[in-house]
Each structure stands twice: as C-alpha cells, then as structure tokens.
Amino acid sequence: MKIRNIIFSAALLLGALWVLPISTVLAWETDQSSSSYCSDQNSAVIGWSFTNTEPNTSGNSMDVIAKDNQSGTTSNKVTVPGGQTATGKLDTGKTTLGKGTITYTLTWTDGHSGVDTRTSSYDASDCTPPVQLPVFKANITCTVDDGKAIYKLIINQTSGVNATYNPANGTLLDNGTAIDVTATYIGEDEQKQTVTATALASEDCTPPIEVCRNGAVISIHPDERLDTDTEAPCPEVIPPTEILPVTGIGGIIAGMFGLTGVGTGIGSWFKSRRELESSLLK
After folding, report:
1. How far apart, in whole angstroms, are the C-alpha atoms of residue 157 and residue 144?
2. Is 95 exposed, middle or buried (0-12, 13-18, 19+ CB in 10 A)?
3. What share of the chain is helix, strand, coil (3-state, %, to 5)?
4. Which of 180, 141, 139, 187 is nearest to 163 (CA)?
5. What beta strand segments (E) does 69-178 contain?
6. What is the pTM of this model?
7. Which of 49, 57, 243, 257 is 20 to 30 A from residue 11's alpha carbon, by CA?
8. How far is CA 278 from CA 261, 265, 268, in A?
C-alpha cells in the first residue's frame, strides 16, 4: 500500500512539473498605453500602443483587438509576437471626448486556450474648431445727385461667421473721409470678438462747379479752376453800335433805307445848293 501511495505521489509531482512551463507561457505579460489628440479634420483620435512582453519564443504570439469604450470604435485584429510592440489609432469621429479607456482583447495566435483583456486610459480632448472671424472689405462709393455728392458705405464679407457691422452696410455718409468699420461676433459662450477694417473712398466724387471761361459757361472739377475763370453766368456783352458810312441828312435818310451810294449823292446835292444860295446873297 505504501508503495502504491509513493508511486501515486510521484506521478502527481511529475505532472505538476510538466504543467509548470505551460503555465508560464500563458502568463499574458503585456504593457499598454493610450492618449487622445485632434486630427486635422477636427476629429478626436485615440492613439494606442500594445507591447507583448512575453519572451520571443514559439507559442507566445498574441492577437490583439483594441476598442474605445466611449465611442465604440474598434481596431482590426493585430498579431503581436513576443517582445514586440504594435501601435494604432482609433478615429472616433467626435469633436469632443471625455476621459476614457481602451480595452484590449487578447488571444493566443497559435490557438492556446484562454482569453484575457487589458485596459489603458486617456485624457479628454476638445477638437471643436475655432471660430473663423469674418473677413471683409469696406469702401466708400459716391454718386452725384443734383450737383450733390452722395457717399455710401459698402461692405463685402468674403468668409467667416456672420457678424454685426458698425456702421452698417449701406450707411449714407456725410463725406468720403476714411472711417473704421468694426465687425462683431458673439459666440455661444457669450464671448465677444471683433475685427476692424478701414473704409476708404473708392473715387473722387466732388461735385463739379460752373464757371465762366472765355465768355462761355463750362462745368469743371474745383481743382481745375483757373485764375482767369469768373463765376457763372457770364456777364452780358453789348455789341458795339454800327457806324453809318454816309454823312449829312441825305446820308441818314439813305442809311435808313440801306441806300449808301444814293445817300452820298443826295448829301452832296444839298451841300452844293447851300453854297450856291450863299453866293447869291452876297
């Protein structure tokens, strides 16, 4: 009986010694870490790293699947031999993430029985894109209406969020002097942000003036006025009286009828008659 017990105990001891190396192989020695960051597309991404710290021997290779417990995003299966590291990333498609964890599901690549899990944590990330403030141009245009310049502020926003402008687009101005235009945006957090640009006159819209130049009324820009120009309208010019080409009463009478040659003859006849009468009276 004693011999039988001794044989049985020896068998148990040998069995334990045979199982011991296998248990060592199935120890699941690992190291893992994870962190979150923002992609260029403003999406929260979780980067993970998994190291199989088992010796690099046959039968120690692990198959790993990483899953984000907050977004539910899961990686493809990755085979990690002993002593090696696998890395990956999980794009959650979210703009914000709170603090969270990654679960790694482990199986032996060669089909050894057993499944194990590991976890790693990461910090929160806020990938909300920053507000793009308005980008705009402002200028002052003018038109002339009934000899008066009409100035108007024109604002052209090319990008960015909608904003309130001061002065408002289309505001009529007293003149074309440069002014500052401010665009104000108030976000969801009630934070006020402003952008300022200077509006300049797009053209010279000084109304023309009328002056008298060389006896004629013309419209010119005030800067074009000459020292010899006078105020419009031009003074009235009286033409000189026409001088009759005949003399004497006959000439006057003939001039009245446009008979210049005849008038000269009549005037000469009257003159000869007066001379004759004077000589007879002597």
Report:
1. 26
2. middle
3. 20, 40, 40
4. 187
5. 78-80, 85-91, 96-97, 100-108, 115-122, 125-126, 135-145, 148-159, 164-166, 172-173
6. 0.49
7. 57
8. 27, 20, 16
Structure tokens given for 83: 């002593």
C-alpha to C-alpha distance for 42 and 180, rounded to whole angstroms: 34
Structure tokens at 160: 């960015």
Q: What's the confidence (pLDDT) of residue 275?
A: 52
Closest to 117 in 3D by CA, of 67, 48, 46, 56: 67
Give the span between the Cα atoms of 221 and 179, in whole angstroms: 24
Q: Looking at residue 242, what is its pLDDT?
A: 52
Cis peptide before 233 (omega within 30 of 0): yes
N-term to C-term CA, the chain:
215
What's the rounded Cα separation, in Å, for the pair 217 and 212? Answer: 5
Options 2.60.40, 1.10.3430, 3.40.50, 1.10.8; which CATH number does 27-126 get? 2.60.40
Phi, psi at 91, each rounded to 5°: -85, 110
pLDDT (0 to 100) of residue 145: 82
- Measured CA to CA, the distance from residue 169 to residue 181 in angstroms comes to 9
Question: Residue 273's pLDDT is what?
Answer: 47
Residue count of the chain: 282
Q: Please give the backbone phi and psi of residue 54, each rounded to the nearest 5 degrees, phi first.
A: -65, 155
Binned at pLDDT 50, 70 and 90, residue 14 comes out as low
| Predicted confidence band of residue 15 (pLDDT cuts 50, 70, 90) | low
